[in-house]
Design a protein that fits this description.
Rossmann fold; 2 domains; alpha/beta; 5-stranded parallel beta sheet; two-stranded antiparallel ribbon; globular
């Protein structure tokens, strides 16, 4: 997480005057006490939280996806709701609706999406109308019920999961709707050592997370990320990477052109910069480096590139295409205030 070793004792709750980096280091330490073997997942969820983005997780059951968001919500002090998506859900089950009260009048009942942290479990099991209802709230930050607009609380983050191993009883997310997610993360199995540690911890009393933040402090961290400086060369690097997914031949990657039907939109470029700002805050910097954009490229783009039938026939996946783009486009050198060039 950090460029250099921190001097803060991570076992202590950060002082009220702690820097954003110290606060986030303490949060990550606390999360890792509970969730074992998913360090990258924890890191990226915090990036999404600071950049006001949402995350789509893909992985088989049992990899701590639910535990991760529950733990983040407890440590951050936010309200947590879990929505188990099933084929019989209707939009009002997610956003809420009008209910008849005892006095014969209709009152508004807000749905479970009105929380700081929302887990949309197995989102691809719900029909299109329900998926659209959730994704509309994610994009707009509010829901309209009976002509009245209700904003979601701040901060607000949705973590949606989908199971990649089942094809029956599921509804694939449309590409245009998937683009609403800032990042898509592939959650893999833990290593043998991590799995042994999981078994050891859970065989006895499972550790309980401590609350280290509150909603106001999270908003302060988000605002700190908004002020992070982005050099024009870093912006150009992000735009160039995303542009290569639309026109790979322009970067000398003619061999990728048959594999790509659609590349990332400007929303992907925005996601790289916003995520880069969040990473900079987590690493104790007031500026974004090209390496921040580089490290987020797969997470921000893998769900935004649409592969052709030729790619599927050749067993080429999005990450392989993105690897080729990163190798072909060098990171720019950016001079910092000290005059040291960083690439």
């Amino acid at each position: 997480m950090t460029d250099t070793e921190s001097t803060m004792d991570p076992t202590l709750v950060p002082a009220p005057g702690a820097s954003p980096r110290e606060r986030l280091e303490a949060v990550l330490y606390e999360l890792r006490r509970i969730v074992v073997g998913q360090d990258r997942l924890l890191d990226r969820v915090l990036v999404a939280l600071l950049s006001r983005g949402h995350v789509l997780l893909e992985g088989v059951p049992g990899l701590a996806k639910t535990l991760t968001l529950e733990t983040v919500a407890r440590v951050a002090g936010g309200k947590f709701h879990r929505i188990q998506f099933t084929p019989d859900l209707v939009p009002s089950d997610v956003v809420g609706g009008q209910v008849l009260a005892r006095g014969g009048e209709f009152t508004t009942r807000l749905g479970p999406v009105f929380a700081n942290f929302v887990l949309a479990d197995e989102i691809n099991r719900a029909p299109a109308k329900v998926q659209s209802a959730l994704l509309e709230v994610m994009a707009e930050g509010h829901a309209t019920i009976a002509g009245e607009t209700h904003p979601v609380p701040r901060p607000f983050i949705v973590l949606a999961t989908q199971n990649p191993i089942e094809s029956e009883g599921v509804y694939a997310l449309p590409e245009a709707q998937v683009d609403r997610f800032a990042m898509k993360l592939i959650v893999g199995y833990p290593s043998s050592a991590d799995e042994e540690e999981i078994v050891r911890r859970m065989a006895s009393d499972a550790p309980a997370p401590r609350q280290l933040l509150d909603a106001r402090q999270i908003i302060e961290l988000q605002e700190a990320a908004d002020t992070v400086f982005v050099d024009h060369r870093v912006r150009s690097y992000a735009v160039r990477l995303v542009g290569a997914t639309r026109d790979p031949a322009a970067e000398g990657l003619d061999h990728l052109a048959p594999y790509l039907d659609l590349g990332g939109s400007p929303r992907a470029s925005l996601g790289l910069i916003r995520g880069g700002r969040a990473l900079a805050v987590m690493r104790g910097r007031t500026y974004v480096l090209p390496e921040d954009v580089h490290s987020l490229f797969h997470d921000v783009l893998r769900h935004r590139v649409i592969l052709s039938y030729e790619a599927l026939a050749a067993e080429v996946d999005p990450d392989r295409v993105l690897d080729a783009i990163l190798e072909a486009i060098p990171q720019p050198e950016v001079e910092l205030g000290s005059g040291r060039a960083v690439s």
